[in-house]
């Protein structure tokens, strides 16, 4: 189990190692490295999802800027694993390229079946679900309902910062 400690409350997620082994290994690596500490949920869309894990706020001496963190190489897309983008599921964010996921992830706040794997084509690959929110879904919903604006060139960004302060990794039994 992983706890995302945010300035809005804790979100506990359980990884599904059996169905998404490489994606879980990748996510856990970032957690163990402390990568997600002080990163933002930088994109929130009520009725859809909240996305984070790739940007931090940093004062560069002149102004506060949102900076993208350096990541490891992209991983293969495991969206064919049978897990669905349903409310409370956690999936890897990516670009239009199917195998481009690195560190960013999103939590579904609705059933989003249009994000599921339908075939091994650019359009059909889908987004790999690798975990489930097991506690704190009310925190996820509260974040999803925040007012948004365009900040630092990003649309759908919360008007108030939503920060993943740290990640706690619970030992597996």
In short:
The relative contact order is 0.29. With about 170 residues, this protein is mainly β.
How would you characterize the overall build of this protein?
This protein has 2 helices and 11 strands, in the order E-E-H-E-E-E-E-E-E-H-E-E-E. With 173 residues, the chain is mainly beta. The strands form 2 sheets. The chain has an 8-stranded antiparallel barrel. The protein is globular and about 45 Å long.
Characterize the largest beta sheet: strand count, sense, and whether it forms a barrel: 8 strands, antiparallel, barrel
The span between the termini is: 10 Å
Mean pLDDT: 94
Shape, per Cα inertia axes: globular
Order of helices and strands: EEHEEEEEEHEEE
- Order of strands, main sheet, comes to 1-2-8-6-7-4-3-11
Return the structural class.
mainly beta
Beta fraction: 35-45%
- The gyration radius over C-alpha positions equals 15 Å
């Amino acid at each position: 189990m992983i706890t995302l400690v945010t300035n809005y409350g804790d979100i506990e997620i359980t990884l599904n190692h059996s169905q998404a082994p490489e994606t879980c290994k990748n996510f856990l690596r970032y957690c163990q490295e402390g990568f997600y500490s002080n990163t933002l949920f930088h994109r929130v869309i009520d009725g859809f999802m909240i996305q984070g894990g790739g940007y931090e706020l940093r004062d560069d001496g002149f102004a506060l800027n949102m900076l993208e963190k350096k990541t490891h190489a992209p991983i293969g897309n495991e969206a064919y694993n049978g897990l669905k983008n349903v409310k409370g599921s956690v999936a890897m964010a990516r670009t239009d390229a199917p195998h481009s996921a690195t560190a960013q992830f999103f939590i579904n706040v609705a059933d989003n079946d249009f994000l599921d794997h339908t075939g091994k084509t650019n359009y059909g690959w889908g987004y790999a679900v690798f975990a489930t929110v097991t506690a704190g879904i009310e925190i996820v919903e509260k974040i999803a309902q925040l007012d948004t604006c365009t900040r630092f060139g990003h649309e759908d960004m919360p008007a108030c910062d939503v920060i993943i302060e740290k990640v706690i990794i619970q030992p597996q039994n």
